[in-house]
């Protein structure tokens, strides 16, 4: 297998559209982490992603008669632009089926490259099914985003360049979605430099490769997180898993906060702004160094893309400090009496307060949501919690509470007294006209909506926190209605933030 893929990668046709990207030293990260850190800058390709390599190689390898009938694919992002550019260079017709939730900037990019953008469905799976139906009907060649040997070989040229540029490498960190990049990089490195470790990096809420490795077979995740949409894949590709499963040395899972911190690190290093999927490898590298105590090694991370929606910068900035354990978020109950506010701040000390929300709760107490700058990692955060508790303050550490970070910090209130049968849910709404109306049609006309908070982060999906008054006898029907709606959701009724801060008061 390795020799077959080595030959495929050596013969890959990518440089009609792709450039040899720089492998840049990252001196700031290197100093912080005690290792030589190298960034492979695939974000500097003409379409700001590595995806054009695999797309072009796959199309170039097609039989000319097949190619002449045109190519089609389904994609909401970087692969779409790669296929459109490849078809433009080869003088072919290209149809790109994209979900209706695809940001306008990506649709316009495809059209600017000469591709025909077809908007269908609310999610990638809808677009993919439609693309396969069109391919069969029109006789066009389907160009899979990752599960194809020629796509894998095209992506593998990145590893070939990297080893030529860096010489010795102790480890390479590779972002994983469907697995095309991982399989190509692993195949080349293990064929040419088998002592170099290949480390797969995934979001902890989109870990299709890591889950497959644990199970010993491909599995389908019930749902995936959407923040790093470029790697939000429910199942690793069949050929990708066959190639990578015996070649990858380790898997690292990273959180949204760690991805945001890595994005900030890359910006500080060279003023580049990768998309979330593009920063994942750096996040994984940082976690791996911390967990393994690595020092004095040469470590490379692939910056896979930079097609970032500008609106996401707000969310990234909010979460970056949390990703490096440089900020703590606390929910604290303080007495409702003169001087209590001042006394509480004295207990915080002369630390930098990053945000502060206060809410009157009753004649006896008030609720405070406070963010505090941390300089010495999680130990300092835990010590501050203990100090506050020792002075009589009830404290809940919200630093790792996703609902608190997504919603609570923007809405301080309290559980509404006397509100019966309320249940709390977090939803992901597709960013398309009618999404809220569909939700209301499914549940709002039958059960009272007692709270509703919406947050958009420049992605294809917005985040919603919703309270519903559902009598116990209706709970099964409510669950059935929510499941039928098809929106990803999590019940948060037992979340400690609910009692402290949320409500309709």
Task: Give a nutshell description of this structure.
By secondary structure, this protein is of the alpha/beta class. The protein has helices spanning 2-11, 27-33, 51-60, 64-68, 78-90, 104-112, 124-138, 149-166, 180-192, 208-215, 238-244, 256-270, 276-292, 312-323, 340-348, 378-390, 402-406, 435-444, 475-485, 496-501, and strands at residues 23-25, 36-41, 71-74, 94-98, 116-119, 141-142, 171-175, 197-203, 250-254, 298-303, 327-335, 353-360, 365-373, 395-397, 422-430, 448-455, 461-469, 489-491.
Low-confidence spans = none
Instruction: Assign the CATH architecture of the largest domain.
Output: 3-Layer(aba) Sandwich
- Tell the overall outline: globular
SS summary, helix count: 20
What amount of the residues lies in strands? Answer: 15-25%
The SS-based structural class is: alpha/beta
At CATH level 3, the topology of the largest domain is Rossmann fold
Summarize the amount of helix as a percent range: 40-55%
Q: Strands of the largest sheet, in order across it? A: 1-2-10-7-8-9
As a whole number of angstroms, the C-alpha radius of gyration is 25 Å
CATH class of the largest domain: Alpha Beta
Mean pLDDT: 88
User: Major sheet: size, sense and barrel closure?
Assistant: 6 strands, mixed
Beta strand count: 18
Distance between the termini: 64 Å
């Amino acid at each position: 297998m390795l020799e077959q893929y080595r030959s495929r990668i050596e013969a890959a046709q990518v440089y009609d559209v792709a450039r040899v990207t720089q492998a840049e030293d990252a001196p700031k990260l290197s100093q912080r982490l005690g290792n030589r850190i190298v960034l492979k800058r695939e974000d500097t390709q003409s379409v700001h992603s590595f995806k054009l390599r695999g797309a072009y190689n796959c199309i170039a390898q097609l039989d000319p008669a097949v190619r002449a009938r045109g190519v089609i694919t389904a994609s909401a992002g970087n692969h779409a632009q790669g296929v459109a550019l490849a078809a433009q260079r080869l003088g072919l017709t290209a149809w790109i089926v994209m979900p209706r939730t695809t940001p306008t900037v990506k649709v316009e990019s495809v059209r600017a490259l000469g591709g025909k953008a077809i908007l269908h469905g609310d999610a990638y799976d809808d677009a993919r099914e439609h693309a396969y139906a069109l391919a069969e009907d029109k006789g066009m060649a389907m160009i899979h985003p990752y599960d194809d040997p020629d796509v894998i070989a095209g992506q593998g040229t990145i590893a070939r360049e990297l080893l030529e540029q860096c010489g010795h490498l102790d480890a390479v960190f590779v972002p994983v979605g469907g697995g095309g990049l991982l399989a190509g990089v692993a195949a080349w490195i293990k064929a040419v430099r088998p002592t170099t470790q290949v480390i797969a990096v995934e979001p902890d809420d989109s870990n299709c490769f890591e889950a497959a490795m644990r199970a010993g077979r491909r599995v389908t995740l019930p749902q995936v997180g959407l923040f790093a949409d470029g790697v939000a894949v429910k199942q690793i590709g069949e050929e990708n898993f066959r190639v990578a499963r015996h070649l990858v040395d380790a898997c690292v899972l990273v959180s949204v906060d760690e991805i945001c911190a890595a994005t900030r690190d890359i910006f500080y290093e060279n003023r580049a702004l990768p998309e979330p999927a593009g920063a994942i490898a750096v996040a994984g590298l940082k976690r791996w160094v911390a967990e393994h105590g690595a020092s004095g090694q040469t470590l490379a991370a692939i910056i896979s893309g930079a097609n970032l929606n500008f609106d996401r910068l707000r969310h990234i900035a909010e979460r970056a400090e949390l990703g490096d354990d440089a900020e703590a978020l606390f929910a604290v109950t303080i007495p409702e009496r003169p001087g209590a506010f001042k006394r509480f701040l004295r207990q915080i000390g002369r630390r930098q307060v990053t945000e502060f929300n206060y809410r009157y709760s009753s004649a006896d107490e008030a609720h405070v949501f406070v963010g505090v700058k941390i300089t010495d990692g999680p130990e300092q955060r835990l010590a501050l919690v203990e100090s506050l508790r020792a002075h009589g303050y009830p404290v809940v550490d919200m630093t790792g509470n996703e609902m608190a970070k997504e919603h609570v910090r923007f809405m301080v209130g309290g559980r509404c007294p006397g509100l019966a049968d309320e249940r709390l849910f977090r939803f992901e709404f597709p960013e398309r006209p009618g999404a809220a109306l569909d939700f209301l049609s499914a549940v709002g006309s039958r059960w009272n909506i007692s709270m509703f908070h919406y947050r958009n982060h420049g992605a294809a999906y917005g985040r919603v926190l919703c309270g519903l008054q559902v009598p116990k006898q209706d709970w099964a029907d409510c669950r059935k209605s929510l499941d039928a709606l098809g929106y990803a959701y999590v019940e948060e009724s037992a979340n400690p933030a609910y009692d402290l801060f949320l409500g309709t008061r």
